[in-house]
Amino acid sequence: MKKTDPHYQAYLQILREELVPAMGCTEPIALAYGAAVARRALGRLPDTVCARVSGNLIKNVKSVIVPNTGGLKGIPAAIAAGLVAGNPDKVLEVISVVTEQQKAAIASFLQSHPIGVHLADTPLTFDYTLTLTGGGHTVTLRIANYHTNIVLLEKDGVKEIAIPVEGEQESALTDRSILSIQEIVDFADSVDVDDLRPLLDPQIQYNMAIAEEGLLHAYGANVGKVLMSTEASLERRARAKAAAGSDARMNGCAMPVIILSGSGNQGITASVPVIEYARSLGIGEERMYRALAVSDLCTIHQKTYIGRLSAFCGAVSAGAGAGAGICYLLGGGYDQVKHTIVNALAFHSGVVCDGAKSSCAAKISMAVEAGIFGYQMYQNGQQFRTGEGIISDSVEHTIQNVGELGRQGMRETDHVILEMMTRESC
Prior knowledge:
Elements: H1 6-18, E1 21-23, H2 26-42, E2 48-53, H3 55-61, H4 75-85, H5 100-112, E3 115-119, E4 127-134, E5 137-144, E6 150-155, E7 158-162, H6 181-190, H7 193-216, H8 223-228, H9 234-250, E8 256-258, H10 264-280, H11 285-306, H12 314-329, H13 334-348, H14 360-379, H15 395-409, H16 411-421
Parallel strand pairs: 2-3
Antiparallel strand pairs: 1-8, 2-4, 4-5, 5-6, 6-7
């Protein structure tokens, strides 16, 4: 693929849009970001706060610790953190700088200002509307379809932002339908590595740092540490470090990560195993950058069909992406990469997403194992074939099948999971 090819620049732009820093689980941080923007518009802390959120936001915020809040969990905690201590200019790092006094103020605000949280009547998987009142003014903010997509900002009936929402479309972003596995490999083969460095260097730095943090200290169920407590093969270290990054991220660590398809866990899963393989095997930096591009873009490609939030665990897609990246790192081309992805999806699709929490780390470990095993199968002349379950006649049709499974087939699963999770308060 030549630099003059429109897809070359589009692929770089897709990476640029997806590889952004965030701290903590992305959904509560998005709520905090919206709250900080709305508070700035109001000009003061509100007297009343009401939030309407889609089911998948409830699912992904309920059980994770919001960073820099002193261990608080849940939607009210995320909103209060953004209102009291958020800097909206930092976007998904909105509560990265919080003083001890502000932590106390967050807890005090929650005690004195009950935050109403309601399930939104919406067909969208990502939908967040926040209404603040105070000082005789009212501000309403809405974020839809992805974490920073503010589609409404209104004060006292005057709309500062008003963008129509037509289904689950991401019209402000580069068209992801141009992605294909063959072109991804072609892009990785031909891309100028200097074009990748500014995009991938933060991913390498941030995601490996939080992986090491998860192994050094106790977070959640310590899945990464458990994996490292027995034989430490390269494959196991790759799984353990990815899991450890999630251990830390899901359980209040304030270190940032570089997200992918809106998810820090997916960003960690797609990158850390590839980096660990490259460093352990002494593979050159240039090949590692190209392999990371394969992993990241293959993950984005799969998630385009599934959607940013669903009942389908996104680690499955990122694990298959990591397997593809490792395959490429070790000299594989398009044929090897496509079979790695198909093999991984054949036996690991269908893992449910029951919200962001400590067990995500274990699912990440399983997803990375599936990606690596998909590659090992092909190395040994074995593969799953057309017509076996959801496997279709090409890697593209198989990815589309998995997307249909995740977006359409698991909708009722999502409803049942949400009902189970909301038997208690949000």
